[in-house]
Protein: Proline dehydrogenase
Amino acid sequence: MGKRFRSTVASTQRDEVEGGKEKQVDECTVVKAVQADLITQSKNTTEAQTQKIEIDFDNTHEAYKSKDNIELLRSLLVFKLCTFDFLVDKNKELMDLSKKVFGQRLFERLMKMTFYGQFVAGEDHNSIKPLIHKNQAFGVGSVLDYSVEEDLTQEEAEKKEMEQHYVSCCFLTLGVDHREKKYKAHRQFGDRRGGVVSARTYFYADEAKCDNQMETFLNCIKASGGASVDGFSAIKMTALGRPQFLLQFSAVLVKWRRFFNLLAAQQGKSGMDALEQKLELEQLKVRIGCAYRTEFDFEYVIYIMSPRTIDLLDWNSLINDRTSISNLLVIPNVETGQLEPLLRKFTVEEEKQMKRMLQRVDVLAKHAVDNGVRLMVDAEQTYFQPAISRLTLEMQRIFNREKPIIFNTYQCYLKEAYDNVSVDMELSRREGWYFGAKLVRGAYMYQERSRAEEIGYEDPINPDYEATNRMYHKCLEFVLEEINHNRKANVMVASHNEDTVKFTLEKMNQMGLSPTENKVYFGQLLGMCDQISFPLGQAGFPVYKYVPYGPVNEVIPYLSRRALENRGFMKGSQRERSLLWKELKRRLLNGQILYKPVY
Structure:
């Protein structure tokens, strides 16, 4: 094998981190930003002889010049309403009541003047074009997403989740099920929307519905390709097949990783970072060579590896070449030294369903390549995520050879976030493909903590919000240093946190990373944090607004989640409202009562 790459490029002097939560951003499409006079530039002679960029996020004239006064007043009204607990808690009931009292037409007009107008671009592709073109003129791209959601009751959601789980389990040989509690469906958490306000949830019905959802993603990819030359589109794995498959695959991957950690501990290498745990092959042969000789050819492993050590990435690669998905779902038994099936039996139809899920993912990836669109795979719950990340990694190995097409999402409120980023980055270095990451804080914190406590496994979430910020910045700095090192990494900073954005700009200045290289992107939701998005866009940075669209009645679940999300966001910070008031007062004092954006 060729030369070994270094195991890390990030600074070794980092704080130990853990974390809390911020909302996840689901991205889709972008338009290149336009240079404006908002930035201050000075020569940076100590770093990379490049221009230093500083952005004033207090400059309300630049931040809101794409908005007329009515839009500013609407933002103030909506954000204020989001601070009232009663209105937020009962938002769906109040919307249903308003529809009955005012009638459908008046209700829709009222919604378009308030919440719908703030967070949704329009009802169809044609009606959203004016907003997309306006944002583009002010340097901000548009993330297109058809935001119609299935409006299920909790009972209906639990029934759907458990039915698709039962179909699989009823074919098992009695008494053979090696999965841990975490990787099994539980009725009390069957409604996966519980405690989740910033991410959409899909429930499995049948294969035809999965095909329809794939078509929706395909349409989004087409729209993204038509809106810009370097667009993005986002997908969710749970929309493309039975989530039960993701549970089973995740259980296998976690079992193998723990087995690797056990062997590392036996060689005195516990407590190290994931990439520093390297197993000596000769010791490994002595320990398990006989028991696993029929499964693994250690002489071949020694032949292809240099030096004579094996680490987590190489260990995972040992189970990649199995042709049958059922055969893939095997785990090592530490006591007997034998490989055992995770579950005893799969039906022919289950095999087909699993393969169709992978085929749908493949179709989307190829379609993204054909349309010149980059594909982001959204993160989901931790009991699905090992499988989602591994499938995404396999797509990256195929499609990211010449440029970054596939992006994985890393939730930085997880205790293992940095290990996940660093391990995947190392694989991209060894194999020579482009690494693509979207960093979010996370969308499932309350549900994850509640499920871990109730079912009885370790809480995967770090303890507090401040620690999550440190974890986010640690992962971000690691990727930025990799970009600085070889320009083959790319990152989406998906955050509404102004301090995180400033941290990113500071690191980019220190490393001499130019926004025009399109290696670092920023993303926020439509209707939120315009004081961040628009100054960045006008300064030449690639910035993305997630732009939902769909009929008023059918996006009510989405609007309900936005109200819940903004309650915490607005209670925690008065900054956006104060900036809106500041700009409105400035315009009134300057006689700009009828201000209209010019573009």
Remarks:
- The radius of gyration is 25 Å.
- The chain is about 50% helix and 10% strand.
